[in-house]
Amino acid sequence: MADPRRTEAADMWGPFRFFFGEWSGNGEGEPGISRSDRDYSLVLHDRFIQIRNRAVYEPQEKNPEGEVHEDLGLLSFDKRRGMHVLREFHVEGFVNQYLIDTTEVGKARIVMTSEAIENIAPGWRARTTYEILSDDEFREEFDLAGPGKDWERYSATNFKRSRKGSPT
Questions:
Q1: Tens digit of each residue's pLDDT (9 = 90 or more) over 89-134
Q2: Exposure of 55 in the CB half-sphere (CA atoms within 13 A)
Q3: How many Cβ atoms sit within 10 Å of the Cβ of residue 59?
Q4: First to last CA, the chain
């Protein structure tokens, strides 16, 4: 007999199954040219998706030492609101809480817009867009908007699957 907890989790994570596994990517943007590694996996009895990310930025004129960025995300499903929520914890001390735009889920695109950002001046917003390009490739675009300003692209990374992960 199937474990109902696993069935519930599998259905809950349907729109995100594509991402399970390990990914490598190349990016560019405000912080420079980067090489990224990312992993998506179920944790804590399949109640959350954990996202581990590490990006190494090459030295550039504005940052001659280069930079290593790391963040850890936990994607949950808020039953009360009936939506997925992503919380990202960044090495710089930022904590971004995103809501997934449910009008986009199920398409080849997922849009997440911040509802809160810790440790930054009031009024800043963040948006992350995933566009699925093929069975083993997606593009992530990260945009920021200062107080009262329009969105500006901060970075974009193309990821390719390194290894598939298990959805349970």
A1: 999 999 999 998 766 555 688 999 999 999 999 999 999 999 999 9
A2: 23
A3: 12
A4: 15
Return the CATH number of 4-12+24-164, one of 3.40.710.10, 1.10.10.10, 3.40.50.880, 2.40.128.20: 2.40.128.20
Give the helix/strand (H/E) hosting 4.
helix 4-12
How far is the C-alpha of 83 from the C-alpha of 15, rounded, in Å?
A: 12
148: DSSP letter? T
Using the CB atoms, write b or e for 77-92: b if 16+ within 10 Å. Answer: beeeeeebbbbbebee
> What are the residues whose beta carbons fall under 8 Å from the beta carbon of 2, sequence distance 6 or more?
none
Selection from 52, 86, 43, 92 nearest residue 68 by Cα: 92
Main-chain phi, psi angles of 78, to 5 degrees: -85, 100
pLDDT in tens, 42-94: 999 999 999 999 999 999 888 888 889 999 999 999 999 988 999 999 999 99
Nearest-10 Cα torsion for 18, 19, 20, 23 = 130
pTM, two decimal places: 0.86
